[in-house]
Amino acid sequence: MSEHWLIAGANRGIGLELVRQLIARGDRVTASVRNDEARAALAAKLAPQHAEVETLVFDSRDFEAVSKAARSAGAGFDVVFANAGAFGPSPQTVLNMDFGAALDLFSINTLGPLRVAEAFLPRLKGAANPRIALMSSELGSMANKNPGAAIYSATKAALNKLAQCLAEELSPQGVTVVALHPGWVKTDMGGPNAPLGVTESAAGLLATIDGLSLNDSGGFLNYRGETVPW
Length: 230
Ligand SMILES: NC(=O)c1ccc[n+]([C@@H]2O[C@H](COP(=O)([O-])OP(=O)(O)OC[C@H]3O[C@@H](n4cnc5c(N)ncnc54)[C@H](OP(=O)(O)O)[C@@H]3O)[C@@H](O)[C@H]2O)c1
What we know:
By secondary structure, the protein is of the alpha/beta class. The protein has a single domain, classed as Rossmann fold (3-Layer(aba) Sandwich). It has helices at 13-24, 36-46, 63-72, 99-120, 150-170, 198-210; strands spanning 4-8, 28-33, 53-57, 79-82, 131-135, 176-181, 219-222. The site of NADP nicotinamide-adenine-dinucleotide phosphate (NAP) has 28 residues, from helix 1 and helix 4.
């Protein structure tokens, strides 16, 4: 059955591939980008299929812009996927911190997905199986001790906690919320040495979200549908 998905952060990387695969399998997609230039670039990348994709423009640091976009979307959604994220400053060890850049990264990676979830929540009303997917990373897992990505990891760890809180709050409304890890993926962020391509990662993420029910809410899952330790 065809569903309506929001993919936030869709002009490149994993988000773009999610859009491509959703179109190919016949789902309806609304894609968000940050500005009109990115909107035009996305249309060119998706040609000749782009006519099927509605685009919304917002920066996930701007709650008013996200809310306005959510209200303007053409139809209600089945799935809201807050995929947008950034890696932040380099280097980023705890003793060599760019505090301003670190705060900005929390706004993008931690609060950004929450802004998207909150703003689009009313648009999930009426969905048979409403789901919210928040793009995290296994670098946010307390079990992962990589000191070289301190702030990025902390933003994703904090996002995981918010995902858990949101899942608890929305469970009575029948809305499923999960945090996801896409694997280490060859994108601008993942770099050329990543072992996984966007095709496999996106296909796995879609299959994982397809299979979600309320019983899974509050989980931290990878693109294979496996549980990631908190
Ligand atoms: N690649 C990996 O190995 C990997 C591993 C674990 C988790 N992840 C997560 O997966 C997600 C996608 O990563 P990716 O590898 O596809 O990264 P990417 O190629 O760098 O793409 C990032 C996307 O997020 C958008 N974005 C960044 N800041 C934004 C903001 N403030 N508001 C709205 N959109 C914003 C970008 O838009 P612009 O083009 O306008 O910047 C772009 O569409 C991220 O959340 C990332 O943390 C990736």
